[in-house]
Amino acid sequence: MKFYQAADEGWAELLEGPEEATLTPDAEKMATGRDFGRRRFPEAGRFLLWDRPAAELSALVPGLEFEPHRADPRRAAKIRLPGRMVRVGRLVVLSARSGMPAGTLLEIGSDYWRVATGSTDVLVAELSGLAGEPVVGGDVARELRLSATDMLPVLSEQDARVLEEAYEAAAEHDQFWVQQLERYRPLPLPFAGPESGEMGWQASPWRKVEALARFDPTPRVEHLLAVWVLYLARITGETKIQFGWEAEVARSPLLAGLFAPAVPLDVEIDLNRTFAQVKPSIVDAFVRATAAGSYTRDLLVQVPQLRRIEALRRTLPWDMAVSVIEGKNGCWSNDADHGALGATVTLYARAGDGAVRWIYDPARVAPEQVERMTGHLATLASETLNPALREVPAKHINLLPQDERELVLETWNRTEAAYPSDRCIHQLFEEQVRR
């Protein structure tokens, strides 16, 4: 009853406001859907602080009694778990108090958890991932090996500030990422096989792209990315290219799972222009994406136009992705090339020496084909630096290594055969027709 009275009082206060007041919509806030009034973001980014009273936590999970079909995904509360985060669709304040420390996981049901707070216990249910993908509470507990009496992470005041600051910093680039994500274009690798269910990964050996040896790390990476975009345009026939790019995100354990690990790098290329003419726009896209970092994964449910793109909620939204590994003095951490960012292939490049390798799904791409791709990139990198080809349109730059070029243009075109001298020419024609 108090809940309904509070709601009525709130509406009355709103309706009694100044008659002459005007509302000026903010275009950016309307585009991103992120506006929390005087406080741009609520405390701790709306993560539940278990040491607070249950009633305070309940206020963070909007009741759906009035209009359940109009639930606001921007206002969903969240739970911080080891290595991941989940959204809470429903929170029920219980009258019982277990007396256990705040944050104790008291009970794990098939679709709910009972948790101790700073006052009475609560039930949390209707859990989902940050991007809106449904999850089952019991399954999450099993994945994280949680059991009753385990402690969920209790966020400190400093943790809360870090989360708020992370959301604030990400919000500066929300509009940029919304524009990029709205243009989501799945670009499959033309020669990849169909998806086979469970993914498995294999890594190719590192191979240096010798043509890039004379560059410093930054121009080396820029040239390689431009070559990669040209390669994709050539093999797919597309001029609007979008692939995944490993984002620069904070490595803090507190923020694990908050940001998208891969973001879209979206470029358009005119193959009728020279490589020197198309390269600047590719580099510019790379620079802008790098500067913008990443987006918080719940942006996908906070913005209506993004909620409609189901593919963005996949674990690996892009079939192809790129990651650049920074290194000093030729040394690179082994965990830098930790895994796949693309659903089919991920190109890893070392800025220090220009070496590349692939993380790929062998069920979809054969190792021999991956080796060919490496050869194509190396050839394109060399050919695009050839002074004699500066005025050649990008669509005509050779991408085949010498041995493959001879195979395609010469070996496969050798059709001569020994002439059987004991037969007339018309007999040979008749035999050919019968074949």
Automatic annotation (TrEMBL):
Give Gene Ontology CC terms: cytosol; enterobactin synthetase complex
Q: Which InterPro entries match?
A: Formyl_transferase-like_C_sf
According to the record, the signal peptide region is none
- State one molecular function term (GO): phosphopantetheine binding
Q: Which GO terms describe its biological process?
A: amino acid activation for nonribosomal peptide biosynthetic process; enterobactin biosynthetic process
Gene3D superfamilies reported in the protein's UniProt record: Nonribosomal peptide synthetase, condensation domain (3.30.559.30)
SUPFAM superfamilies xrefs: CoA-dependent acyltransferases, FMT C-terminal domain-like
Q: PANTHER family, alphabetically? A: FATTY ACID SYNTHASE (PTHR45527:SF1), NONRIBOSOMAL PEPTIDE SYNTHETASE (PTHR45527)
| Name of protein | Condensation domain-containing protein
What is the species listed in this Swiss-Prot or TrEMBL entry?
Mesorhizobium intechi
